[in-house]
Amino acid sequence: METTKTRVLLAEDDDSLGMLMKDFLLAKGFEVELCVNGKKAFDTFSKKDFDLCILDVMMPEKDGFTVAKEIRMVNKHIPIIFLTAKSMKEDIIEGFNKGADDYITKPFNTEELLVRMQAVMRRIQPANKDADEFQVGLYHFNYKNQSLEFKGNNQKLTTKEAELLKLLCVNQNDVLDRNFALKAIWHTDSYFSSRSMDVYVTKLRKFLKEDPKVQIINIHGKGFKLYVEKV
C-alpha cells in the first residue's frame, strides 16, 4: 500500500536557504512547494492542499505573520512553523498570537527542523483528524466527498459550493470576510466573481433550508455568517 506523503508549504525568500530546505525535506520523503514571497505563499495555499506550513517571517509583499493570519481564516488546524532571524521576545509572542505551533530562530540545523515538524504533526493529529467533516445543525458536511447529508438524504455539491461551505463552517457563528472568501476561492475580488459568489450563497441557503436553526446571514459591508442556533 502506498503511503501518502506529508505536503509542506515552504515560504522562504532566501533562494539558497529555500532550496537547501526543500532538497532536505524531499530527501526525507515530504512533498514540498517552495514560494519566495508571502503573496505567492498564500495564493499557493489557496489552490492546493497542505498538511503543514513553514513560513519565514520577513518576506516581501506579505510577511509571514500576515500569511499565517490569512491561512488561519481558512484552516484553523493546519500546523504553522515560523522561521526568523529575530530572537526578540516580542516577535516570538506575536508569532504564537498569529497562530504559530512552533518557532525556529535562524540559523538552525535542518535535523532540528525535522524533529520539530514531527513533534507538531503528532500534537495536531487528533484535532486535524476530522477537519474536513462538519456538523451544521442537523446537517453533516463532508468536504472531501463534497456531500451534504440531512436525515439520510445526500446532496452532492460542486467544488465551489463545497469550498464556500467549508469556509463558512470554519468560521461558524463568526463573520466570513467577503473579499477574503473571493480571493481564497475565486482568486479575484472582481465584480463578476462577487456576483458569482452571491449565486453560490443562495444555493447553499437552499440546501440548508430544512433546518430552521441554520442560517447564512448577510453582514452588511463585511460578508457572511453561518449562524447555527445552539440547542
Low-confidence stretches: 126-130
**Mean of the pLDDT scores?**
86
The total strand number stands at 12
Shape: elongated
CATH-assigned fold name of the largest domain: Rossmann fold
Query: How many domain regions?
Result: 2
The strand line-up of the biggest sheet is: 2-1-3-4-5
Q: What portion of residues is helical?
A: 40-55%
Strand content: 15-25%
User: Architecture of the largest domain, according to CATH?
Assistant: 3-Layer(aba) Sandwich
CATH superfamily of the largest domain: Response regulator
Task: Report on this structure.
The protein has 231 residues and is an alpha/beta fold. The chain folds into two domains: 7-128, 3-Layer(aba) Sandwich (Rossmann fold); 133-228, Orthogonal Bundle (Arc Repressor Mutant, subunit A). The protein is 43% helix and 24% strand. It has helices at residues 15-27, 38-47, 64-74, 89-97, 110-128, 159-170, 178-185, 191-207; strands at residues 7-11, 31-35, 52-56, 80-84, 102-105, 133-136, 139-142, 147-150, 153-156, 175-177, 214-219, 223-228. The strands form three sheets. The protein has a five-stranded parallel sheet, with helices on both faces. A four-stranded antiparallel sheet has the order 6-7-8-9, covered by helices on one side. Helix 2 runs parallel beside helix 3 (64-74) and helix 6 (159-170) crosses helix 8. The longest helix is centred in the middle third of the chain and has 19 residues, at 110-128.
